[in-house]
Structures are given as structure tokens and as C-alpha cells.
TrEMBL record, chains A, B:
Molecular-function GO term, any one: DNA-binding transcription factor activity
Organism: Alloyangia pacifica
Domain HTH marR-type: 20-155
Annotated InterPro entries: HTH_MarR-typ, MarR/SlyA-like, Tscrpt_reg_MarR-type_CS, WH-like_DNA-bd_sf, WH_DNA-bd_sf
SMART domains per UniProt: HTH_MARR
Pfam families named among the record's database cross-references: MarR_2
Record-level GO BP terms: response to stress
Keywords, in A-Z order: DNA-binding, Transcription, Transcription regulation
Glycosyltransferase listed as a keyword: no
Phylogenetic classification of the source organism: Bacteria, Pseudomonadati, Pseudomonadota, Alphaproteobacteria, Rhodobacterales
Name the UniProt record assigns to this protein: DNA-binding transcriptional regulator, MarR family
Length: 170, 170
DNA sequence: ACTTTAAGTCAGCGTTGTTGACATTCCAAT
DNA sequence: ATTGGAATGTCAACAACGCTGACTTAAAGT
């Protein structure tokens, strides 16, 4: 049977939430929810000749001003060639400033310009509005569970980067 | 202040879980978790000249055998041209069978072949393994919260389709 | 029978991911 | 001081997968 792997009891505790059907529901929920998660920023970006890649770069530059290209690379999990194409357009369009490092002139430190900050605010306001609405509907306990599951789904390396970002903001 | 929108109390209940910082954490958690969520299938598909789009098509054809192209279109939220390219390669490679409708000959009904079922099993086994591990780590209450937040994040139309899929499987 | 609507296909384009090759610039170690 | 390695950037090519537009075929409405 499909649910054989979970149709057992361990120490008297029900494992019904681990059936293949429950897991499949979670998988589909992730799929549909991620579409909602990116829908609002996607709408804003379409027509600006920008996409999700630009949004992600702007988000993390905003969170860690002065970050290097290489650091951003690790966070975003893409190749430098891919990121470079995105950063080049953002710099050309005056949304991001790239300053040569003082201690190490090989590094480029990235900052949002005023225009970049304005777009970041527009994008994150829209995305936060949806998150806030969802959080409000379900309450703090559900939100805590939500974050626990997401964290457990990450690869260990991503988990470390996620926590590092949290720590850097208190 | 950044947290002005949530630094209030309503009816004596704390809204600290709605601060901009909490929402930002949720946004980043979604970003990193979705990478983990797709990592295993992506690994399996890479080199097969297939991608996520093929995975999604296979997943939903498996869940609703005999579904039409148009129905799949609505679930996946892409254009028929985009889906068609994916379906064409899957049919050519003998993973999906496309049968002309009997009542309405315009429609094509989609079914997985044995080979298609085998790949579906390989992909969903990998993805479920990660989900199961995450679920096990956090327990049933957290999982319930996780699903509540995801559902609240969906657009209403996606929410309906998500629930319809659940109902069709009991 | 003629028109309209719907389903599916084909062709072409844009974004964004990939790899590979290569230049530059700088730090560090010998 | 020269050499080796690391960080960055550029150019080129390619794959996956969104999109639009134009088209065929089949069903449905008048």
C-alpha cells in the first residue's frame, strides 16, 4: 500500500501525519503557495524588463548593504555569470552602486541607490502585505510551525545562511 | 519605525509575530526552503534534459490520470504553448500517452506510461523523503501550522484548485 | 451552412539558469 | 621579486521554460 511506510505506531504516537498522502498535500501546498508568494513582486517587475533574479539581488543587497558579489553568490546559489548579468543591468540603471573594496580592491561592495531603495520598498511592501495577511489569518502558533517546517526542509548550508542573516539583524 | 505597523496590541493579544522583521524572516525562509524543496528532483532530472516543468506535469498527470491539456493548464498556471513543449517531449520519449477524447475530439486525455510512472515514483520518493524528514523533526502541530500558512498565502483560485485535488483523493 | 469559440500545435523571443575559456587585479608565500 | 592562487569580470554558447502571435482542427451556436 502507498501508506505502508507510515501506517505504524511508534511508542504509542500516531504517525498519520507522515502518510504519503499527507506528504503529497504538503508538496502541492508548497507549489501553489510559492506561486502566491512571488505573484505580487512578479507583477510589479513585469514590464520593467526585470525578473525574479533582480528582485532577489535587490532584497539581499538591502538586507546586507556593502555585501560582496561573492557573498551574494553564495546566498543566491547561482553562478557568478548569471548574477553578473543581473547586477550589470541594475548598476547601469542606477539602482545599485558597486564600490571597489578598500582593504581588498578585488572585491566589489554593493549598495542600493535611492532609486534602488525605492524599488526594494515597493517590492517588499507588496510581499510583506501578503505574508502579514496570511500570518494574521492563522495566528502565531501556526506561524511558528510554518517556520519550523521550512527550516527543516532546507539543506544544511542554506540553513546556516538563513540563520546568519537572522543573527545579523538581531 | 519599521515595526510601527505591528508594535501594537489588539484586545490584549501580542502582535509581535507580525513585525516587518518577522515577515522578512518568513520571506527568506520560503526562499531557502523552496530551494531545498526542489533540490532532489532537480538533481534527478538534470542530465535527462528534463526540468521542473516536466516534473510538475508528471506529478499532476499521475494524480489525475486522463486529465485534459486544458485542465492541466489551469492547475499549472502557464500558457498552453509552454505546457505543450513539455508534453511533446514527454510523449516523444514514451513517458506520457495522449489519447484523443471520445466525446470531444478536440481534447487530449493524458496518462502516464509505465516508464512515466517509474520516473514519477523516483521523483516523488525523493521529494517525499525530504518532506517526511522535515515533518518528523518538527511534529504534527508544526506541520498543521505549516499547511495553514501556505494555504493562506495562495491566491483564492489556487486555493480552490489545491482543495479540489485533496477532495479528489479523499 | 456559416461563424464563432475552444483545444491544441508550431515558430520565435526574453529571462535566467548553466558551462567553458580567458583577462585582470590583487594578496600571499616562497 | 617572482610565482601561485583567489576574486572579479567578460565573452560566447547553450538549455529550460516562461511569453505572444499565428495557425489547424473540432465543436457549438445561429
Amino acid at each position: 500500500m502507498a501508506d505502508a511506510s507510515a501506517s505504524q505506531v511508534l511508542g504509542g504516537e500516531s504517525l498519520l501525519y507522515l502518510t504519503d498522502e499527507q506528504l503529497r498535500q504538503g508538496i502541492e501546498a508548497m507549489f501553489f503557495a510559492y506561486r502566491g508568494f512571488t505573484a505580487d513582486p512578479d507583477r510589479i517587475l513585469q514590464g520593467l524588463s526585470y525578473g525574479r533574479a533582480h528582485h532577489r539581488a535587490i532584497h539581499f543587497i538591502h538586507c546586507a548593504p556593502g555585501t560582496t558579489v561573492n557573498n551574494l553568490l553564495n546566498i543566491l546559489g547561482v553562478t557568478k555569470q548569471s548574477l553578473n548579468r543581473v547586477l550589470r543591468t541594475l548598476v547601469e540603471d542606477g539602482l545599485v552602486e558597486s564600490r571597489v573594496g578598500r582593504a581588498d580592491k578585488r572585491e566589489r561592495h554593493l549598495y542600493l541607490t535611492e532609486a534602488g531603495d525605492a524599488l526594494e520598498k515597493q517590492l517588499s511592501d507588496a510581499q510583506r502585505a501578503r505574508m502579514r495577511s496570511a500570518y494574521r489569518q492563522v495566528g502565531p502558533e501556526a506561524v511558528a510551525g510554518f517556520k519550523q517546517v521550512l527550516e527543516a526542509m532546507m539543506d544544511p548550508e542554506m540553513q546556516r545562511q538563513y540563520q546568519r542573516l537572522r543573527e545579523n539583524r538581531g
